[in-house]
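A reminder from the course coordinator: this example appears on the midterm review sheet, so study it carefully.

Given structure:
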């Protein structure tokens, strides 16, 4: 393990920080949050393997909303701190601005 100084732009579950010698900040996603994202992706894959396109679309929409939220947080922090984005500014996600509700993980409607 190595201890270094970093530029911390935002604390929290998705901390925004810049590691030297990187030019742009990144997002530190906590391990449990990363695991949830990976699990949601596997639910999309499982629904596709099962031929359940409705469930696959619901899980994909949910995963996309989670990623949109992370990216939106990153963009807002960089904008606040006057840092140019390292990519083309994303267009707003389609549909409601709230995170899509997660489909039922059990596959049981009741």
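Designed residues:
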């Amino acid at each position: 393990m190595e201890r270094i100084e970093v530029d911390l732009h935002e604390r929290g579950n998705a901390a925004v920080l810049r590691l030297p010698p990187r030019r742009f900040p990144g997002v530190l996603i906590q391990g449990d949050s990363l695991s949830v994202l990976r699990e949601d992706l596997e639910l999309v894959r499982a629904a596709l393997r099962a031929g359940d396109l409705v469930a696959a679309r619901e899980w994909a929409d949910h995963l996309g909303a989670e990623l949109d939220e992370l990216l939106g947080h990153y963009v807002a922090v960089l904008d606040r701190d006057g840092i140019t984005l390292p990519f083309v500014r994303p267009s707003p996600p389609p549909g409601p601005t709230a995170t899509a509700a997660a489909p039922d993980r059990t596959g049981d409607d009741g």
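The chain has a mean pLDDT of 89. Strands lie at 7-10, 14-18, 26-29.
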